[in-house]
Specification:
TIM Barrel; 2 domains; eight-stranded parallel beta barrel; 27 strands
C-alpha cells in the first residue's frame, strides 16, 4: 500500500509476502559491505563524570548511569561479544570527559585505554569507527556554555585533533558529531537532554555552532598527517514526518515544517555551505561547511505522524497507523521509511553508511523481524544504485538509554545490570548469520615457497618475506587484502615458519600454519585444513595481484561455484584454455598448445569441500592435481588487472619499480 501526494510517498508493505532468503544465502549485499555494531561511551562504560551524570537525577527517568555496562573494566569480554557477531566494523565514541577531565589536563591512562581498544580491535580484524562527540561534554566545558558559544568550539577541536593525532595512523573512519539535530532539539526545545532548557533562541545558536564545529573539525583533521586518507563524516538522524491525515492541509503543513527543521535544513547546509537553523528566518554562510563530509552517517529508526497538536513530551505515545506495531519506545516500526531516508541524504552525492539502526525490544520478539526488514530495504536500495557502504546495528548490548534510563533495551546482547552477565539474543544470532553469509571470505596465502631462480636471496628464505618497495612483498599483499575489506588471513609458511615469528599486520586477524617438511602447494592446504573456512580466497605469497575482490567473490557466489579462478587474456604466455566461462585445460609446460587463450592470474575463490575431497597426506601440487580433476567445473573470472610474479630477478626489479612509482 502506498499513499502519494505533495509530501511524497508513504509506503506500507505486506511484509508477509517478502522473500528474505537472499539475506541468509549471501546474495543480498556486496562482499565488501561493512557489517558493524555501534555503541556510545557514556551508555556503556560506567563511572563517567560529565554533563549527563549531573543531569540524570532530574531527567525524565531519574535513573543514573552509574557503572552502566561496566565496559571500562570488561573490555576484553566485550571484544569477544563483537567478534562473535561476525562483524567487520565497530563504531564507538571517545569520552571527552575522561580524556580531558579538567581544561588542559590530559588523562594519559584514559587515552591509553582507547589506544588499546583500537589495537585489540585491529588484532581481531575489526575496523574501528570513532565518534568524536556523542552527546556528552566535560563538566568544565558545559559550564563554559558548550555549543551555546562559538568561542568554545576551539576546545572541542583541540580534543579532536589530539585524539586524531594519536589514532589516525590505524583508524580510517571518523564521525565528527552524532545527531546534531537531536542534541539541539532534545536539549533546547524539549528539554529532555542536558541542559534541559526550552529556548528557540538557544536552539538556533547551538545548531549553528554545531555546524561550525563540524566544518572546522573536518577541515582541521583533513589538514593533519593521515588526514587525506581518513574518511570523516557527520552522522545525521533522519526522522521522517508524515501528515497524520494526508488530506488535511494543516497536518501537511506541520509535517513539512518539522521535516524542514529536523532534516532538510541540516542536509541543505552540508550541500550548499549555507545553514538556516531551526525556526530561523535567514540562512547564514558557514565557513568550510560545503563539502565537509567524505560520507554521511545515517541513523534511522522511525517516522512520526504530524498534526498541529503533536505532543511535546516524549513520554506521550505518538500517533501510529492502525496496522503498525509499536516498539517498546512506543513509536512504530516503519522499515519502509529507510528507503526515503536514503533518498533524502543521497542528494549530498557522497557514500552513505547506516551508522545506527535498531529497536527497543526487551523480549526480542520484534527485533529479528526489524533486522530482516531494514536489511531488506538496504539491499534493495543498493540494487537501485544507492551508494551504501555499510550497516551498523544499534546496539551491541543493552545500555543506558539517556533520558529513558535502563527501561529501553536495544542490544543484540541482553545485559543483566545486577550481575553484568551478557546473553546473546536470537536477534543477535540472526544478525551474526547474515553478516557471516555476506562478509568477505577468509584469505589464505601460500607464503612458504623458496626461490630457485633468485639466487642466495631466497635459498633459505621464503620469497614472500623478500623486501621490495621498502617492505616484504607479504606486507604489500596484506595491505591490499585489508583494503578489500577482508579481515581474516591464514598464512601457510612452509617448513621455514620460524622466519615469520613476530610478523604482524594492523587490522587483520592473522593465523600462521607451519609444515614440518616441504609439502608443496596442495600439501600445504591439506596440512592447514582444520584452519580453513568453508570459503576462502587463495593467493600466492610471491605474486602481487591488486584486483577488486568483490566482483570475483560475487561471481563465485552467483554461480554457486566450488572454485572460481581469475584469468587474464593479456599475458605474454598462456597456460590454460577456457570457453563459456569454464576452464577446459591447464598446463604449466613451456610449449602451450595453440588453443590456449588465457593465463591464471593468481587469485581464486575456493570452497573447502574441494580440499577435503581431493586432499591427501604428503607432498602434492594444487595446480597439477585440482585443475585437471575439476577442469570443466572451474568457473573463470576474467580480469585484465596487471599482476607481478617475483620469481626471477627481472620480475623482481619490475615490481620494485612499480612500488617506487606508486609511492610518489
Amino acid at each position: 500500500m502506498t499513499v502519494s501526494d505533495c509530501m511524497g510517498v508513504e509506503e506500507h508493505r505486506n511484509w508477509g509476502d517478502v522473500d528474505y532468503s537472499a539475506l541468509l544465502n549471501g546474495q543480498a549485499f556486496p562482499p565488501n559491505f561493512m557489517w558493524g555494531v555501534a555503541t556510545a561511551s557514556h551508555q556503556i562504560e560506567g563511572g563517567n563524570a560529565n554533563n549527563w551524570t549531573r543531569f540524570e537525577p532530574t531527567s525524565k527517568s531519574g535513573q543514573e548511569s552509574g557503572i552502566a555496562c561496566d565496559h571500562w573494566n570488561r573490555k576484553e569480554q566485550d571484544l569477544d561479544l563483537i567478534e562473535n557477531l561476525n562483524v567487520t566494523h565497530y563504531r564507538f565514541s571517545l569520552e571527552w570527559s575522561r580524556i580531558e577531565p579538567e581544561m588542559g589536563v590530559w588523562n594519559e591512562e584514559a587515552i591509553a585505554w582507547y589506544c588499546d581498544l583500537v589495537d585489540r580491535l585491529l588484532e581481531r580484524g575489526i575496523q574501528p569507527m570513532i565518534t568524536l562527540h556523542h552527546f556528552t561534554n566535560p563538566l568544565w566545558w558545559e559550564d563554559l556554555g558548550a555549543f551555546e558559544k562559538e568561542e568554545n568550539i576551539i576546545y572541542w577541536i583541540r580534543f579532536s585533533s589530539k585524539m586524531f593525532e594519536r589514532l589516525s595512523d590505524r583508524v580510517d573512519w571518523w564521525c565528527t558529531l552524532n545527531e546534531p539535530a537531536v542534541y539541539a532539539s532534545m536539549g533546547y526545545v524539549l528539554g529532555e537532554f542536558p541542559p534541559g532548557q526550552r529556548s528557540f533562541k538557544k536552539t538556533r545558536m547551538v545548531s549553528v555552532n554545531l555546524m561550525r564545529a563540524h566544518a572546522r573539525c573536518y577541515r582541521t583533521l583533513k589538514s593533519m598527517e593521515n588526514g587525506a586518507r581518513a574518511q570523516i563524516g557527520l552522522v545525521k538522524n533522519i526522522n521522517l514526518f508524515d501528515p497524520y491525515r494526508r488530506w488535511n492541509p494543516l497536518h501537511r503543513f506541520q509535517a513539512n515544517l518539522l521535516d524542514g527543521m529536523f532534516n532538510r535544513c541540516w542536509i541543505k547546509g552540508l550541500k550548499t555551505g549555507r545553514f538556516k537553523p531551526p525556526s530561523a528566518v535567514r540562512s547564514i554562510a558557514v565557513e568550510g561547511l560545503k563539502g565537509s563530509s567524505d560520507f554521511i552517517g545515517l541513523n534511522y529508526y522511525t517516522h512520526l505522524l504530524a498534526t498541529p497538536f503533536m505532543p511535546t513530551k516524549v513520554e506521550i505515545d505518538p500517533l501510529i497507523r492502525p496496522w503498525e506495531e509499536r516498539t517498546d519506545f512506543r513509536y512504530p516500526m516503519y522499515a519502509e521509511g529507510l528507503k526515503r531516508a536514503f533518498e533524502m541524504v543521497a542528494q549530498l552525492n557522497i557514500p552513505i553508511i547506516v551508522t545506527e539502526n535498531g529497536v527497543a525490544d526487551d523480549d526480542d520478539d520484534m527485533r529479528p523481524e526489524h533486522i530482516r526488514r531494514h536489511l531488506q530495504i538496504t539491499s534493495e536500495a543498493i540494487a537501485d544504485g544507492f551508494d551504501i557502504k555499510g550497516f551498523y546495528h544499534w546496539s551491541l548490548m543493552d545500555n543506558f538509554e539517556w533520558a529513558e534510563g535502563y527501561e529501553q533495551c536495544f542490544g543484540l546482547y541482553h545485559v543483566d545490570f545486577e550481575t553484568q552477565e551478557r546473553t546473546l539474543r536470537k536477534s543477535g544470532e540472526l544478525y551474526a548469520s547474515i553478516a557471516k553469509a555476506h562478509r568477505m571470505p577468509q584469505v589464505v596465502i601460500l607464503a612458504g615457497g623458496l626461490g630457485t631462480r633468485l639466487g642466495e636471496k631466497t635459498e633459505h628464505k621464503p620469497k614472500s618475506l623478500i623486501e621490495v618497495g621498502g617492505k616484504p612483498i607479504l606486507t604489500h599483499i596484506l595491505d591490499w587484502v585489508r583494503g578489500q575489506g577482508c579481515n581474516r588471513v591464514l598464512v601457510l609458511t612452509g617448513h621455514h615458519g620460524e622466519q615469520f615469528d613476530g610478523f604482524a599486520h594492523a587490522g587483520l586477524d592473522l593465523t600462521f600454519v607451519q609444515e614440518t617438511e616441504q609439502l608443496g602447494t596442495g600439501g600445504a592446504l591439506w596440512n592447514a585444513r582444520d584452519h580453513l573456512e568453508d570459503e576462502f580466497i587463495l593467493l600466492w605469497g610471491d605474486d602481487y595481484h591488486p584486483i577488486d575482490y568483490a566482483p570475483l567473490v560475487q561471481h563465485h557466489r552467483n554461480e554457486s561455484s566450488a572454485l572460481t579462478m581469475t584469468v587474464t587474456t593479456e599475458h605474454e604466455v598462456m597456460n590454460l584454455q577456457f570457453e563459456d566461462g569454464r576452464l577446459l585445460k591447464y598446463s604449466k609446460e613451456d610449449d602451450a598448445p595453440r588453443e590456449f587463450n588465457g593465463y591464471e592470474a593468481g587469485t581464486s575463490v575456493v570452497s573447502k569441500s574441494i580440499v577435503m575431497a581431493h586432499g591427501k597426506e604428503g607432498a602434492w601440487s594444487w595446480e597439477k592435481t585440482i585443475y585437471p580433476a575439476l577442469a570443466d567445473q572451474i568457473h573463470v573470472h576474467l580480469d585484465a588487472t596487471k599482476f607481478w610474479d617475483m620469481g626471477t630477478p627481472e620480475r623482481l626489479q619490475k615490481l620494485e619499480m612499480f612500488f617506487n612509482e606508486t609511492r610518489r
